TrEMBL record:
Start and end residues of each Lipid/polyisoprenoid-binding YceI-like domain: 40-177
Domain of life: Bacteria
Native species: Hydrogenimonas cancrithermarum
Designated name of the protein: Lipid/polyisoprenoid-binding YceI-like domain-containing protein
InterPro entries attached to this UniProt entry: Lipid/polyisoprenoid-bd_YceI, TTHA0802/YceI-like_sf
Signal sequence bounds: none
Pfam families from the UniProt entry: YceI
Length: 183
């Protein structure tokens, strides 16, 4: 009788309902580097549009998730710096949006397709799954997106502050809070 009851409990658990994961919140962060000592300056974007379809797994939720970032919403917690980034970096080459789509997740690497300045590249990002949260970080090279004229422009506009050096690699990261709903 004990095994019969355990069998029924297990069967009910298996067929009681499915769980669905969806996105609760997303943060996108960046860190650029200045001076010969490679001092990091970071921030976020305030206008991010996310399209992610709910799925039965977190991996399924993320694969195909896509963001569109409005570059005018750059937020480094310094309004003067933000204005310079928009004017002397993004708008120099007419970059009004950045898009990114998670194409695949293999073990602990998310392959993210980033489009900036009309150029699309896959950027591998180290990904970590935690309870109801997914974090990823990677680096993009501005040269891969033909953004060196913008880099030159921001370096010139901030020459003294940057001590003549602005680096072309930028750390990017995202933090997605998920929610699970089971029926």
């Amino acid at each position: 009788m004990k095994y019969f009851v355990m069998g029924i409990v297990m069967a009910v658990g298996l067929f009681a309902g499915e769980c669905t994961y969806s996105v609760k919140d997303i943060d996108v962060e960046w860190k650029a580097y200045k001076t010969p000592l490679k001092i990091g300056v970071g921030g976020t974007f305030d206008a991010i549009k996310l399209n992610a379809m709910p799925d039965k797994t977190e991996k399924g939720l993320l694969e195909g998730a896509r963001v569109v970032i409005d570059t005018r919403s750059v937020d480094s917690k310094n309004k003067g710096r933000d204005a310079k980034l928009v004017k002397f970096f993004f708008h120099i080459q007419g970059v009004e949006t950045i898009t990114a789509e998670i194409k695949s997740i293999e073990k602990d690497v998310a392959n993210v397709e980033v489009t900036m300045n009309g150029i699309t590249k896959i950027v591998p990002m180290k990904v970590e799954f935690d309870e109801d949260e997914v974090q990823a970080e990677g680096y993009l090279d501005l040269g891969d997106f033909d953004m060196l004229p913008s880099l030159e422009s921001i370096n010139k506009a901030c020459y003294d502050l940057h001590k003549g050096k602005t680096w072309q690699d930028v750390k990017i990261a995202f933090d997605i809070k998920t929610k699970r709903r089971c029926q």
